[in-house]
Amino acid sequence: MKISKLTFTLLACCLGLWVYGKEYTLKSPNGKLVATITVDQQLSYSLSHNGQLLLDKSAIALLLEDKVLGQDARIAGKKTRTVSEKITSPFYRVPSFVSEYNEMILSLKGNYSVTFRAYNEGVAYRFSTSFKEPFILKDELAEFNFNRDYTTYMSYSTAAKGKDPYAMAFQNLYVKAPLSAFDTENVAFLPVTVDYDNGVKLTITESDLEAYPGMFIKGDGKTTSLKGEFAPYPSRMDYHPWRHMSYVAERSDYIAKSEGTRSFPWRILAVSKNDTQMPLNNMVYALASPNRIGDYSWVKGGKVAWDWWNDWGIYGVDFKAGINMDTYKYYIDFAAENKIEYVVLDEGWYDPKVGDMLTAIPDLDLLELVRYAKSKQVNLILWTVFNVLDEQLEAACKKYSEMGISGFKVDFLDRDDQTAVEMVYRIAEATSKYKLSLDLHGIYKPTGLNRTYPHIINFESVFGMEEMKWSTIEKDMMQYDVTMPYIRMMAGPVDYTPGAMRNASKKDFKDIYSNPMSQGTRCHQLAAYIVHDSPLTMLADNPTIYREEQECTDFITSIPNAGIEETRILQGKMGEYIVTARRIGNNWYIGGMTNWDFREVILDMSFLGDGNYAATIFTDGVNAGKQASDYKKEKQEITSQSKLKVLMAPGGGFAISLKKR
Fold first, then answer.
1. Which residue among 164, 322, 552, 639 has its CA within the 20 to 30 Å range from the CA of 604?
2. Selected catalytic residue, list 121, 229, 390, 411
3. Which residues have CB under 8 Å from 132's CB, separation 6+?
4. Would you call 466 a catalytic residue per the annotation?
5. Active-site pick, 56, 466, 541, 620
6. Per-position DSSP letters for 3-22, written without gaps between them
7. CA 219 from centroid of its chain's CA atoms
């Protein structure tokens, strides 16, 4: 006989098979967000905002080999507290911020607990265990149950169908679709945003990811429910024949090996009423473990003259451009002329097939390059592959620190299972000891690691400019550029690598590997240096063309990467446009971007306060819709009473510097 769920529940209650547990309520400091935690046969929670249900009852649990933490949950104790703390945030969108939250820790029988925190900008929870012995986690249950078929914004894994979906670069466009239309043959990587069609949006992400796999999102393609999914623990590794890159050849039937006593990653539900709040959400940073390296005064952000995107494509010189001394001295000279702090030596300075980063290719004398760069007040960054650095970690850090290298750009992790995450932490610890900064590419989304290790200056995990070397116009970069800041930048800074001086309209764009161009206008590129949270930012194009476009180069290099005291989103709508303002001292910088739609914005300058400002304004030229490199530069006097009308061409933008008199 088939028994309905309701009949079974009533029967179970009458027979006394279980006793209903208790509900606990946790509110945000402003009272608008309410999390209701149910401790029962299945531990679960729900979430509402101003009375609107955002998440229906959603189960959470840790699945061990011999039991499930979260099933048949029984309360052993409860603690609550209200916290207001000032968090110092170097190389961030503000130098510090106040984090306020209400916290509830529910201790559960069986030596585990769950902690919930309610902020005005979202809710987070995490499990903790206090076992005597290490244990295996078979899986984690993290449900996200919605009561309607809301619109989602998701980036799916780019792994080929039938291949390991957890092995990829965490770079893709956003798919806008209903919850019920989830691609069941794939997984989405975080952050993921759900739109409630009334301005409210919920973004799922995580923080304090350590010794554990990162969370993906999965749907069933029928209902309005999502759930967390996790890469299984690698059981066998192998190497690709190129770059000496390691990859997971076989995986286990569990997701993690855990110490008996530990806390697990925070599951974050960031909630915004207006889109302009989204890029300013601080939950990922606030929930991360505090600084572990102590003094970080040696860490410096800045601009970087980059070789790879432009394919070492300098011209008008009397030597053959490539990975050689003459070319890199040319890049160093360019950096020095423009007060650019760094030059990166990207792939090719050591033989990538051999995978020995302790040995440079014969055409390069690194000691001489370091000496030459230092004489010009320029520092060098070396590219490498994650596992190559990890396999030579102590020797590489010691050698290049003593040589005078400033740091590493580490690439091609391309996974976030437990052993990959542990590798990142090993590298972070070793490089901090030798005072080498890090720019992490081919990596999962930021999870607050830049708070724990402030010398990790930037992260990729973004569909950035490199994609323009091989993508067709169907890859809508302009749509992405005004969606990504609202979603991805919640997690942390982005190494998008802007700065293209070859710019193309939608009609004219072509993917050309060695002479790449951007989609959209020149001013769209300039705006990226203001819109993006990016304490270490590439100049992606080649020095020759930057010298030909010195006016734009001067503007780019005049925008500081360090010392940001205030960040505001003045206007914007996710997927359409964004206008960002940043204050450094008494000066302001404003950048705006649009999608492929022509747009007019009126800038209300009342936020400036008292005083007069000398404004340098770059806007799309009158012909930028056809000739995307067309721009107009003008100077104006601006006060807080000013109203500035700006026109953005399709795929356009604008960039303004305001120097206080």
1. 552
2. 411
3. 260
4. yes
5. 466
6. --HHHHHHHHHHHTS----E
7. 23
Name all contacts of 273-277 with Cβ < 8 Å and 24+ positions apart.
273/49, 273/199, 273/200, 274/199, 275/199, 275/201, 275/486, 275/572, 275/573, 275/574, 276/569, 276/570, 276/571, 276/572, 277/121, 277/569
Q: Are 112 and 67 in contact (CB under 8 A)?
A: no
Residue written as tokens 């437990």?
418
Which residue has tokens 């919920």?
Answer: 202
Tell me how far apart the alpha carbons of residues 154 and 156 are, in angstroms, rounded to a whole number. Answer: 6
Cα 416 to chain centroid distance, Å, stands at 14
Three-class SS state of 302: strand
pLDDT band (50, 70, 90) for residue 539: very high
Cα distance between the two ends of the chain: 83
What is the rounded CA–CA span in Å between residue 501 and residue 409?
Answer: 23
Instruction: Compute how many other C-beta atoms are within 10 angstroms of the C-beta atom of residue 499.
Output: 27
> Under DSSP, is residue 652 helix (H, G, I), strand (E, B) or coil?
coil
Q: Does the annotation count 311 as an active-site position?
A: no
When pLDDT is averaged across residues 562-590 and rounded to a whole number, the result is 97
pLDDT at 162: 92
Kindly give, in sequence order, each residue whose CB lies less than 8 Å from that of residue 437, ignoring residues fewer than 6 positions away. Answer: 299, 300, 381, 406, 407, 408, 431, 455, 456, 457, 536
Average the pLDDT over 279-296 and give the result.
98
Determine how β-strand 225-230 pairs with β-strand 437-440: unpaired
Q: List the structure tokens of 98.
A: 């106040």
Do 194 and 150 contact (CB within 8 A), yes or no? yes
Assess whether pLDDT exceeds 60 at residue 607.
yes
| Separation of alpha carbons 523 and 529, rounded Å | 10
pTM of the model: 0.96
CB-hemisphere CA count at 13 Å for 122? 27
